[in-house]
Amino acid sequence: MSTRALIGKQNADKTVTFIYCHFDGYPSGVGDTLIESYSTPDQVDGLLALGDLSVLGSELGEQQDFNKRNRDWCLAYGRDRGETGTEAQTIDQEMYVRENLRGEEYKYIYSLSKNWVCYGNDDEEAEEEFTIKYPTTESSTT
Fold first, then answer.
1. How far apart, in Å, do the first and last CA atoms of the chain sit?
2. DSSP collapsed to 3 states, 35-49
3. pTM
4. What's the rounded Cα separation, in Å, for the pair 91 and 98?
5. Does residue 82 come out as left (phi exceeding 0), alpha (psi in the -120 to 50 range) or beta?
6. What span, in angstroms and rounded, lies between the C-alpha atoms of 44 and 36?
7. DSSP for 62-123?
8. Residues contacting 138, CB < 8 A, separation 6+
9. In 3D, which of 11, 19, 142 has the Cα closest to residue 78?
10. pLDDT in tens, 29-83
């Protein structure tokens, strides 16, 4: 079974550019990987450029065999399986947060303040949401 997620980046015009990720979408999966490996705008842009993902890896990686993958690399439907229509999409931020767009359980937004924000859907109604702000490497204090 999969835990689906959307991964997006907030734009100045109150839209979000996002991709779909099929596996490990929960905060201790995709959430931790985003914090650890995608903490700058350039890294997030590179991730979004891959389009929809089967699995988020700690590295963007290179084109690979979809069935014999490098476990550290992202597994992308377009790059690695040749699918079309997997490019990042841009929609209104409020719609991104409120609507269930792709059957996702979690949504992530890389905010203009360079923090990851996670929204989770209530299993029954998908209307309640909770927000967890994760400090990025750049903004965390030790």
1. 37
2. HHHCCCHHHHHHHHH
3. 0.86
4. 12
5. left
6. 12
7. ----TTS--TTB-EEHHHHH--SS-S-EEEEHHHHHHS-SSS-SEEEEE-TTS-EEEEEE-T
8. 39, 40, 114
9. 19
10. 999 999 999 999 999 999 999 999 999 999 999 999 999 999 999 999 999 999 9
Q: How many residues are given for the chain? A: 142
CA distance 86 to 4: 15
Return the structure tokens found at 67. Answer: 């069935």
Contact 73, 60 (CB under 8 A): yes
What is the maximal distance between C-alpha atoms in the chain? 43
Q: What tokens were used for 37?
A: 């490996």
* Residue 118: closest CA among 8, 3, 2: 8
| Spatial contact of 131 and 118, defined as CB atoms under 8 Å apart | yes
Quick one: tokens of 25? 């979408």
